[in-house]
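WARN retry 2 of 3 for item q-0093 after timeout on previous attempt; input resubmitted unchanged.
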Amino acid sequence: MSADRPATAFTPSRWPGAQESLLESRGEYEAAFDELLAGARSLIRIFDRRLARDFDTAARIATLRRFLLASRVNRVRIVLHEPGTLARDCPRLMALLGPFGHAIAIHRTLAPAQRVYDPFALTDTTAFLHRFHYDHARSLYSRGDLPATQLLALRFEEIWEVSRPAVSATRLGL
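OK item q-0093 returned
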């Protein structure tokens, strides 16, 4: 790794035709996240420390609703370190769980994944948004880099394996 490039937990490969954007601000990150979600065709995977109020915008939840209505097989999988604030910070997402509880899964990480500090989101097998640390906005937005997206998808699956359901569509408590 060169001295002028910072070390990160994930370095994408150079794939022909791939488009990459290094994002430096929270505004750039939010715009890329919205673009990423809008481009999803069958699967959205999100890993983060927690989802804050800025995740729960009316436009973003409308995008998720359209995505879920587009096909019965479309799925959203979310893994969080701290899902306890979802009811307070993301009421629109919680409301979306009602009619789409079969298609949205929200998990909490267990001890083996608690030290993972770099949030990311993937759509299908071709695009991802990877923040280098959850306390900073600096991130990489990649479209069309199949090998890099597959590596990050494998990482998501590893985290998913060491997580457990945290939020359900019902409040029965059974």
